[in-house]
């Protein structure tokens, strides 16, 4: 299975971690976005949106990380623990995935990346949105080990990748959210593919350090 990726991308890291959870070996195809690998005709031919991650599973091409994660779990999971088939349990996993992309990932992107890419000052109102999102996640984790209960799901790995990216911002602190902090620390030690996730964060930190010079 071909996996088009960049380790700095949170959706790529979460997709990789799901594949690792399933014991899948990926044919890694690194995409250097700064030099336009994603805009090359051969890649656009398989993904007209030219986004990553993208997989090519023996001719079946799919992009959008959360769609890929669900496909991988359904197709290659030895059981349904990562993505339950029970409709109510799956609905909760989906809700957390939508919360991740629509709230956690979105509010951080709107707060943090303009500071980096456009050199604008931090917006305290946007920081409040990030803190509000962490507060919601803290509630979701109350009295349970993972974001949907007592079993690791694709929602945990998606959100873990997002929150790993939060650590790029020194002013964002998980300590006021004890359930989040406990969960995050646990996944740092146990998440399949966590080494790949850490490398992606380390690469981003290095890039940010160089960008500030």
Structural descriptors:
2 domains; 8 helices; Glutaredoxin; globular; single chain; four-stranded mixed β-sheet; 213 residues; Glutathione S-transferase Yfyf (Class Pi), Chain A, domain 2
How would you characterize the overall build of this protein?
The protein is an alpha+beta fold and 213 residues long. The protein has 2 domains: 75 residues, Glutaredoxin (3-Layer(aba) Sandwich); 125 residues, Glutathione S-transferase Yfyf (Class Pi), Chain A, domain 2 (Up-down Bundle), CATH 1.20.1050.10. It is built from 8 helices and 4 strands. It has a 4-stranded mixed sheet with strand order 2-1-3-4, with helices on one face. It is globular. 31% of the residues are buried. The mean pLDDT is 96.
């Amino acid at each position: 299975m071909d996996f088009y990726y960049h380790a700095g991308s949170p959706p790529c890291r979460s997709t990789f971690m799901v594949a690792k959870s399933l014991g899948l070996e990926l044919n890694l195809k690194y995409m250097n976005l700064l030099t336009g690998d994603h805009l090359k005709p051969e890649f656009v031919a398989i993904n007209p949106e030219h986004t990553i991650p993208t997989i090519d599973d023996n001719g079946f091409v799919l992009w959008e990380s959360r769609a890929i994660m669900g496909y991988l779990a359904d197709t290659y999971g030895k059981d349904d623990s990562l993505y339950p088939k029970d409709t109510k349990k799956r609905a909760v996993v989906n809700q957390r995935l939508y919360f991740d992309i629509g709230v956690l990932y979105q509010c951080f992107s709107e707060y943090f990346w303009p500071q980096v890419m456009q050199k604008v000052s931090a917006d305290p109102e946007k920081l409040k949105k990030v803190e509000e999102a962490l507060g919601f996640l803290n509630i979701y984790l109350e009295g349970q080990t993972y974001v949907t209960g007592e079993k690791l799901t694709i929602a945990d790995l998606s959100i873990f990748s997002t929150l790993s990216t939060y650590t790029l911002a020194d002013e964002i602190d998980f300590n006021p959210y004890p359930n989040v902090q406990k969960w995050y620390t646990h996944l740092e030690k146990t998440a399949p593919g966590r080494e790949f996730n850490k490398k992606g964060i380390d690469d981003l930190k290095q890039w940010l350090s160089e960008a500030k010079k």
